[in-house]
Amino acid sequence: MPRPLPLLICGRHRLSLDRPRVMGIVNITPDSFADGGRFASVASALAHIRTLLADGADIIDIGGESTRPGAEPVSEQQELDRVLPLVEQLRAECNERAVPISVDTRKPGVMRAAIAAGADMVNDVGALQAHGALQVVADSKTPVAVCLMHMRGEPATMQQAAAYGDVVVDVADFLRTRIAACLAAGLVRERIVVDPGFGFGKTVEHNLELLRRLPEIVALGYPVLVGLSRKSTIGALTGRDVGGRLAGSIAAALAAVARGAAIVRVHDVRETIDALKIWRAI
Ligand code: HH2
Fold first, then answer.
1. Is residue 2 situated within a structural domain?
2. pTM over 0.85
């Protein structure tokens, strides 16, 4: 079984994966399910990013389009207007702890512009399947990392498409195919991260099965990123609305790391890092 790689090549950065890493979420959107509308201006988003950095985030993930179930797509120009000023500003400041900047997008045009502005990673819930997306990453002079995520269907309709033979086998097969496409396009292994895509065309039971059997995704031999923070599965299991899902989200992050996740994508960076410190010490 190939062992997951201990190092991620992430644009200008080399991120050691000798310990679990925490990716802090920043959505500059009016409609994201957990933080929509909170960071509508560049200034408020930057202030939030500074907090996440001070809290110890290892990667900052900036998104300009909500992909929550039922979300409506936004135009490329809208997404560029939201994301680019932030990437440019962060890069200009060389963000004080100099952590990698990831851009959460499915659009090749946004990927290209974000990389030119200094992004270090492309986090694509569409796994670089959009026409031209893989080429943008392969042609990039900066060796940006890519996160290939599994999604069934499209955000607008994906919860209607939640049917699988064996969800873990289906997700692993899909990720294997996308990894092969990246390698064929010339990406080195050390630039690739995979993500089973919790909540993207999956029921609560699918998400739990994926989490229980996460080692089967880890066995693909690539760092696994897990995003369960504040998601509806946490809400379904705890009976809490979005604002009350911190404890459930931390439990899920620890369960993921215990099963081999290399990176957890979270809203609550400080609390997650505290929990991971205890888990690691034990
Ligand atoms: N989840 C969301 C967005 N991007 N990327 C990866 N790699 N993995 C995920 O699980 C993932 C993701 C959805 O969460 P969020 O960004 O908080 O909300 P929204 O899509 O509504 O902006």
1. no
2. yes
